[in-house]
Each structure stands twice: as C-alpha cells, then as structure tokens.
C-alpha cells in the first residue's frame, strides 16, 4: 500500500505532506561498487534495494516506517500526531548519499488514540488528535522548530548516518563538503506555485503547489531537487574559494574533484514522475539551476584552458 492510503478505513482528510531530505558526499575515496551499494542500502531485512543504471546509476533502499506519537510543531502540546513516518536512503552515481523522511498528515475523527493496528494500516501517515491549524504546523516545520514535536530532521539524519558509518566505506572522502538539508511541504493549503528559498548556507525550504500524486512521487521529486541543489552548492564552493594571488595550478587542483566526482551527475528530472515535470520547469525558470550550473562549468573549463596555455608557454 502506498503511503497515504487508508485501506478499509475510508478516506481521511489530507491536511498536508511534510518531508526533509539530507544530502552528502558518500564517505568513500572512490565510487562504491554495485554490490557495496546494495549492501549499504539494505536497511529492511527481506526487502530488495531498487536499482537503475540509466541514465545514471541510482539505488534506493526499501522504505522503513518509524512509529511516532508526539505533539505537532506549532501547536504546543495541544495537538498530537500518531502514526508512522516513511524514511529511505539513496545513492546516486556511487558518490552522493541521501536520506529522506516524509509523512502525510490527515485529520483524525476519533478524538483519541486508537490501537496501533489502525495506524499501521496506513504506512507513512500520521493522524491528528485535537483541533488543528494546518498552516501553523506547516510553517513551524519549514522553519525547523520541532522542539519536542515531530522531528523529521532527526529521522533523516539517523538514516543517512547509518549509511555513512557503514564499515564497507573507507571513510576517506575525496574532498570536504557540507551536508545540506531541504525541508518541504505540499498539500491542499499550499500555494498554486512552487516556492524555493535558501535559508542559510546548508538549509533550503520548498513549498510545493497542491498535487494529487502519491507521496512517494512527490518525495522522489524533492530528493532529485535536493541532489541538484547540493551539486550546485558544492560546485560554487569550489569555484569561488580561490584565495587572492593563488597560483593557477592550485586553482586547478582545487576544482579537480568537481571534474572527477560531480560534473557527470547533473541530470535534473531524469527520474521525475511525468506529472511533476512542470515543477522542474518552474525551478529552471527561477532560480534557474541549470543556467547557474552551466556558467560555473564554463568557468572551470576556462581555468583548465588557462592552466594549459601557461604550461605550454613555460
């Protein structure tokens, strides 16, 4: 059953879907093999890792569901949410690891906590107990104010750490780069247009327009967006960190990891559900991911060309 379905329980009112995606360079000096990738993502015993090789190597762990019974952000202790959060991990191109945690929030009718069997019938769904203001919960989650409430950040971090700390990795990443976090929300109360913002050097916020697609497809779009935001952020850091007066050879050495590890991974919307392709077009119009990527790839090529000319001149 897909997340958000209430098998045999009628259709509960969908209030919102909330999620977080954490993205980082895999802690390994080389691209991990197919065999090791599957072992790293074998997070649920008895369920297979999903893999694809075209247009680029991509593997995804089985979904794991984490039981929660807690207050919801933005409501103090007045509103509880009970159910399960869906979390999973992915590895792209043998180099980039991601972990995603997301949940559909639906309005509860019982006014009390029900047996766990009720909540397990709808994996990836939280049912509310108490009078709820959906907008305040969405705003608080996107601001990152969980407090003692539902904490998708902790769930996603734990999933990513499980992959990054695995003994199969040599824990010698080829270069240093920051882990980024994308918080996202989608639902009937959201805007009709996509809104993407950079909150700080490593945190992003995404508000999605109303969509009737299931939560897995929406989460996959957010994972793809988070991947390309991380690639662009990492590339910009490499290109713009040249100290004044540094030698051209030092500059080339600093940007070489981008050539070896990053440039071939840029394939936006390669795995996006066709019904969500328009959202990628919104991203390309503003803030214009691919335009900025191409400008900086050209800067790298210019640096390599100048280094070659200087070497030939000597």
Secondary structure elements and their pairing?
Blueprint: E1 14-25, H1 34-40, E2 50-52, E3 58-60, E4 64-71, E5 80-92, E6 96-106, H2 116-120, E7 125-129, H3 134-143, H4 152-164, E8 180-186, E9 195-200, E10 203-207, H5 215-240, H6 248-262, H7 277-285, H8 289-313
Parallel strand pairs: 6-7, 8-10
Antiparallel strand pairs: 1-6, 1-8, 2-3, 3-5, 4-5, 5-6, 5-7, 9-10
Number of helices: 8
**Quaternary organization:** single chain
Q: Label the overall shape.
A: elongated
Low-confidence stretches: 1-9
| First-residue to last-residue Cα separation | 66 Å
Biggest beta-sheet profile: 10 strands, mixed
Radius of gyration, CA atoms, in whole angstroms = 21 Å
What does this structure look like?
It is built from 8 helices and 10 strands. By secondary structure, it is of the alpha+beta class. It folds into 2 domains: 208 residues, no CATH class; 81 residues, no CATH class. Strands 1, 2, 3, 4, 5, 6, 7, 8, 9 and 10 form a 10-stranded mixed β-sheet that branches. Helix 5 runs antiparallel to helix 6, helix 5 runs parallel beside helix 8 and helix 6 crosses helix 8. The longest helix is centred in the C-terminal third of the chain and has 26 residues.
